[in-house]
Amino acid sequence: MFNKILIANRGEIACRVIKTAKKMGITTVAIYSEADKNALHVEMADEAIHIGPPPANQSYIVIEKVMAAIKESGAQAVHPGYGFLSENSKFAEALAAEGVAFVGPPVGAIEKMGDKITSKKIAQDANVSTVPGYMGLIEDADDAVKISNQVGYPVMIKASAGGGGKGMRIAWNDEEAREGFQSSKNEAANSFGDDRIFIEKFITQPRHIEIQVLCDSHGNGIYLGERECSIQRRQQKVVEEAPSPFLDEATRKAMGEQAVALAQAVGYASAGTVEFIVDGAKNFYFLEMNTRLQVEHPVTELITGVDLVEQMIRVANGEKLSITQDDVTLTGWAIENRLYAEDPYRGFLPSIGRLTRYRPPAETAAYTPGVAAGDAGDVVVRNDTGVFEGGEISMYYDPMIAKLCTWAPTREKAIEAMRVALDSFEVEGIGHNLPFLSAVMDHPIFIKGEMTTAFIEEQYPDGFAGVDLPEADLRRIAAASAAMNRVAEIRRARVSGRLDNHERKVGDTWNVTLQDTSFDMTIAADKVGSTVTFEDGTAMRVSGNWTPGDQLANMSVDDAPLVMKVGKVSGGFRIRSRGADLTVHVRTPRQAELARKMPIKVAPDTSKLLLCPMPGLIVKVDVEEGQEVQEGQALCTVEAMKMENILRAERKGVVSKINAAAGDSLAVDDVIMEFE
Amino acid sequence: MAQDTRHSGAQKGHAMKDILQELSERRGAARLGGGQKRLDSQLAKGKLSARERIELLLDEESFEEYDMFVTHRCTDFGMENQKPAGDGVVTGWGTINGRMVYVYSQDFTVLGGSVSATHAKKICKIMDMAMQNGAPVIGMNDSGGARIQEGVDSLGGYGEIFQRNIMASGVVPQISMIMGPCAGGAVYSPAMTDFIFMVKDTSYMFVTGPDVVKTVTNEQVTAEELGGASTHTKKSSVADAAFENDVEAIAEVRRLIDFLPLSNRQKPPVRPFFDDVARVETSLDTLVPDNPNQPYDMKELITKIADEGDFYEIQADFAGNILTGFIRLEGQTVGVVANQPLVLAGVLDIDSSRKAARFVRFCDAFEIPILSLVDVPGFLPGTTQEYRGVIKHGAKLLFAYGEATVPKVTLITRKAYGGAYVVMASKHLQADVNYAWPTAEIAVMGAKGATEIIHRADMADADKIAQHEADYNERFANPFVAAERGFVDEVIQPRSTRKRISRAFAALRSKKQTMPWKKHNNIPL
């Protein structure tokens, strides 16, 4: 086995690889850019080598710099992670030239699968199902009908030069094919000045399902089941699971065997992923092969108990696979949610900054890569992360900061475990998609397992505006808040300097308002918890060990867990749970009565001007007149006292006029730009 | 005889019932203030009544009212026919979380809450009691101003209140809530109290109103622009905070009272706390960025030091380059003054010096220990500052720190340059414990400026200057030169800041320091 391995990557995947390498007793070497000198992967590795400035194209993907680091460290093998140089055949060649093992497939396999047309051709030759279609030019409508019949309805008629839906028609029969051909052709001619048309199979209710394969250099290959990755936003996967709730054993086997056949056709030797698109009738078609470790590999590890990184390293070391296809069993269900530093309330704009708080849910203590999940008990929580509290999320790299996975014997339980894990995940300082992930976990289509690749687009057409909780959930939160508030009130009444014998008595009747809903309730506390009785007579049993200042409340309401992030609000709490962000007021009945008399204020019409908040020098203007800006988007940078301050849009709008340019010196309240 | 006695007893019983009935009726009438119609109009403006406000401010059933039946004695302009009980102000005492406070609440529904001689006398009465018995005074202001019909009697009333504000200053905490109009001479009572809180959209304060302003200066301005909550919290700094409505404002004053001692004869309150004194915050190790010109949020440090992350900020909307407010350490109140690198690099200027100086003096007057968190590049240069007297304003903060005898603990996180280093509770101003993080740079000025002065001769040679700058940085961009001289008692790990600071204050709990006798000092006002 290798003595020393270099990980040519950063972030969570570098940390992930280091964990397994350490388990195998291999010394690890990290590489890092200027922006990553305090990063977690640097901290975790045995050695670390600085390879250049922050931008990846000046550090992580510069082959010469990585090669120099390999030489310096004396590493015998390199794991490329995903992204960066992982599918770069030149890098693999450079390693081969130096006699350093590449923990990945042979150069030839990378090259063959790296080209879409070549890979489709190879797939067809290996009898792998591909999307049927006709690439040649289509003469006329009759020709179009003929080809459509060959391909099989429904078909997609597309303009060669097309884009943005223009020149695109779906046909379900001969008549539609004829009409579609003509209108596509006209539209293409008008829009693109190029009326060439082609036809391919239209995939209805498409799902993205991929097969994990593992091959050695001795001609052995196996598949490790599938991953369902249909929940995507703009080609970016958000939620994955294994197995897929959609596949049956026969389809799984057929897909798996085809995937292995394809891998073996290119002499593959490592872990790889064959991506398929699957339609509503379980027809599957090859899309492409990723010749690397996939981001979402943990869900496969959780249901198979195979440590894919370990297998990759062993294969790279020339070992034979120690597992056969018969050894592979899929146990239970695993779900992965990707935590992105993207603000869902601001059009998923990337968010950078300091992680003032970062507390992932507790991982299942026994979890180590490669240990079969089922052995660890009923539920497994795994969090692959590359960041830490106090760390900085920079603008230079991928905004994915963690992959939270849960495993349980059933899909239902794995989802429930994920809901609790998401509620327990504390991230402050940057915008992130935790509320959105919570919303997806509670979405009926996801719960039923009926998602397609269009899920996010169809279910959140106007973006994500937060979650409105149903009354049942509000009641649970209200009851828990009342119990928590009682603890806080009793503590307040225990301040020193009280007038003896005239102490404040904390009452039992309270009013809780949240999400425009008001509940009157009575609370009776005993040694182990409280009973909260609502006006209508229904009662809830609340317990938990929350004390004032705790930012996470692990409560139990009627024996079901309720995990809430707790913040401070005048006269109550800010509660975040299940994707909702609530202002919860807990008041005495009289306070509530008077509070109801207070005028409801409409949010003030925020000025349509961006004023200079301090005397300073405009260093940079990031937007142009007429540009639409999202809430939170950087508008310009003002330097004052040698500090650069980024001014951001307070809300969505269109820039109508810019009054200042870089280099201008402004006074306080000077108008920098105006909005429509 | 016996029968007579019985008879007379029976008669007495009957009379008592009548008397109780009358008391009840009189109380009922007094409680109605200016009547339902005016109460409705008060509510329509978004304002609670004087009594509702008291009800919210004090613990349930704890209000003891005085002078409910006081009436004015004016007989001019038909006033003899208008004698509402209580005369437009509700006064008394009660408790906030069991601790005693005196309170007055002006009733705008009764003669516009205008101040008559008797109205003023009621306020003076509870102020006298507060000083004597050692409890804070909370005034809820909602008054049209002087009772014009009374003339000089009303003015005299104001004067009596002012004098008591002055007497009570530094004896008991005085808190003013502006919950309606507060104009003319009336503004000077709140002005002399310790804290002023306003309610957004329903309160305003000014010496002369928009009409007079228009007549005298031709300036067109609305009452809101001239003296609304936004004006006074952001521009004038007259007010310490503004809240959305009466309910929120009152809730936040209750919260503030929990931090304050009842008088200068008592220690600040201690409250049970649910936090680990030795809580380690590893994230503080990376709070100060590598780049010395990059800002960071000092509030993060404050909340990570404080018990339960609770920080009660004073003047949050004014002079953001310095932060002031209260936290608790081990349940005990501590006043925090912190440079804020996020705003103007945390520079000291006129506004921030004034803001911090007043806060430091409040803490010292009421035995509240002071924690200073320092990252200050110096004083703000420029004609605006010099013409407006930054010298004297800056001296206020210096003076306030130097005269404060309460426990003083200082932590330098990054820059402590020049005169500003001395001002910010340095060892030289008798701070008790001075800590520094390893990232601290204590120097006369930044390396660049220093190099340009010391090595003026080499200015033409960029390489040499760069070398000199590096040398200066090497020598002074650290806390160790100061530590070698004992100006810094200890260089501490950022992650253990909470524990170290808590222990420093714990060691200072019995601190006694006396200053030379004087009638009073002469702070550069």
UniProtKB/TrEMBL annotation, chain A:
> Required cofactors, per record?
biotin
Q: Where is the ATP-grasp domain?
A: 120-317
**Classification via Pfam families:** Biotin_carb_C (PF02785), Biotin_carb_N (PF00289), Biotin_lipoyl (PF00364), CPSase_L_D2 (PF02786), PCC_BT (PF18140)
Q: Which reaction does it catalyse?
A: propanoyl-CoA + hydrogencarbonate + ATP = (S)-methylmalonyl-CoA + ADP + phosphate + H(+)
What Gene Ontology molecular-function terms does this entry list? ATP binding; metal ion binding; propionyl-CoA carboxylase activity
Output the InterPro entries linked to this UniProt entry. ATP-grasp, BC-like_N, Biotin_BS, Biotin_carboxylase_complex, Biotin_carboxylation_dom, Biotin_COase_C, Biotin_lipoyl, CPAse_ATP-bd
Look up keyword Aminoacyl-tRNA synthetase and say if it applies: no
Arranged from A to Z, the UniProt key words for this protein are: ATP-binding, Biotin, Ligase, Lipid degradation, Lipid metabolism, Magnesium, Manganese, Metal-binding, Nucleotide-binding
Instruction: Kindly list the residue ranges recorded as spanning the membrane.
Output: none
Record-annotated Lipoyl-binding domain positions: 600-676
The record's top EC class is ligase
Gene Ontology BP, a term: lipid catabolic process
Record-annotated Biotin carboxylation domain positions: 1-461
Q: In which pathway does it act?
A: Metabolic intermediate metabolism; propanoyl-CoA degradation; succinyl-CoA from propanoyl-CoA: step 1/3
Question: Which branch of life, at top level?
Answer: Bacteria
EC numbers on record: 6.4.1.3
Name this protein carries in UniProt: propionyl-CoA carboxylase
TrEMBL record, chain B:
Q: Record's Pfam families?
A: Carboxyl_trans (PF01039)
Taken from the UniProt entry, a GO cellular component term is: acetyl-CoA carboxylase complex
Matching InterPro entries: AccD/PCCB, AcCoA_carboxyl_beta, ClpP/crotonase-like_dom_sf, COA_CT_C, COA_CT_N
Q: What are the UniProt keywords, alphabetically?
A: Ligase
Q: Name one GO molecular function term.
A: acetyl-CoA carboxylase activity
Superkingdom of this protein's organism: Bacteria
Which biological process annotations from GO are given for this protein? Answer: carbon fixation
What are the CoA carboxyltransferase N-terminal domain coordinates in residue numbering?
16-272
CoA carboxyltransferase C-terminal domain: residues covered: 279-519
Looking up Gene3D superfamilies in the UniProt record yields: 2-enoyl-CoA Hydratase, Chain A, domain 1
What protein family does this chain belong to? Belongs to the AccD/PCCB family.
Protein name as catalogued: Propionyl-CoA carboxylase beta chain
Gene name of the encoded protein: accD5
